[in-house]
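Usage

Read records sequentially. Each one opens with the input sequence:
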Amino acid sequence: MDALTQLAAGFATALTPMNLLYAAIGVVLGTAVGVLPGLGTSMTVALLLPLTYALEPTSAFIMFAGIFYGGAYGGSTTSILLNTPGESSTVVTAIEGHLMAKSGKAAQALATAAIGSFIAGTLGSTLLVFLATPIARLAVELGAPEYFAIMVLAFVAVTATLGGSRVRGFASLGLGLAIGLIGLDPQTGQQRLTFGIPQLIDGIDIVLVAVAVFAVGEALWIGAHRHRAQDRLVAPGRPWMSRDDWKRSWKPWLRGTALGYPFGALPAGGAEIPTILSYATEKRLTKRPEEFGHGAIEGVAGPEAANNASAAGSMTSLLTLGLPASATTAVMLAAFTTYGIQPGPQLMTHEPELVWALIASLFIGNTLLLVINLPLAPVWAKLLRIPRPYLYSGILFFAVLGTYSLNAQPMDLVMLVILGVLGFAMRRYDLPVLPLIVGVVLGPRAEMQLRRALQLSDGSLTVLTSSTLTLIIYAALALVLLWPLIRVTHRRLAARRPDGATDTSHR
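and closes with the structure output:
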């Protein structure tokens, strides 16, 4: 009850007219930058940081939280409508969301994203109130072997469930891991796969890769097949979710929340892993597997819920441990130190008014996001009625603009073209795109955790199976990889039984 009392006091602070105004400003700004590829929420918070020095710390962080949550939702809009992820955490949403939009269900995809974001964000913020300390304690206890096992689980879960061929899935994953290796070796400082180009020393930004493979690759594919496709207006579809849409979405919302919050709370977590695992989970559990790859609403509802729940989880890691789980929370950590505040276990004791007002603002920001964005879903859907030549010209324009804004380097535009051609080739030869993105995002992180684990054990591989959690994860991985062989063996054994012999004779 003490937590509820403090939360009520936080609402009293956050609902003052000025703080409510800053929350609304943050939500609108966050949604806007989420829509524009390349302009991430971390960049927005960093740009606004010098402008907020004159504000009270509580007001500044309420606005930052609004930007954080707004960006988590805003990136899904272009992912669904234009197949152009505004944030790396919305890459998974583009897979089924854009297919829904192309089939005239853009409004439903945007609606399930908005409602799922609201539900997951609200549940995640509620978990932040009651479970912040236990989750933080668990995050501290996990070591490098556990983090590495979780990332390997993400690799295999996605690669084994996407596409019609596991060989193509692992080929795509290999491409992503190779792209993730570009840059400096984190241990030795040696250049890897840079080909002597100085601009590649820092690696390739994940947003650049996502925009190139999804947006540019899609535009090239449409251009190459323009003579086959009818250049017609796409009907925006119904402006609201049907009863069947609700029935198919509510369980993915809850499952996405259950995956997103704990991963967001892990210092090495982030939103990418839970959105990937959520998509793989929904594809496994769906009663309509034939719709995946053609626009399944579960493939939008689950990852979007995981995305926003992980945002609440990352706030848990920041406030209770002082450890940022994402680029945006890293900038917010810098903002805390600028105000002379040290996030960590003592923050709730030393700055209770700030902490609980910030937590209360998460509930307020979620409500504002729903109120602002849900009525706009049919309006956004009408963007698809733009003729294809103009639509994809606009997509390429914003892709180039967003990519150049990352580092203001012409080399990024060259990489945009090269990776765009790669995205086109992957569509041509039916290679799934998501394993490539997973490899780029998680490859460097998995390498870092593996090296850290081996350093702690003096090179002994037994450290990778030194805990119960790692053993459980690797057992699950073995089952996933061996399941096709087990199923085939079971069928052959069943065919040798007397009833199986009888069936054969009848044929």
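Summary fields computed downstream for this record:
- The CA atoms of residues 218 and 424 lie 7 Å apart.
- The longest strand covers residues 183-184.
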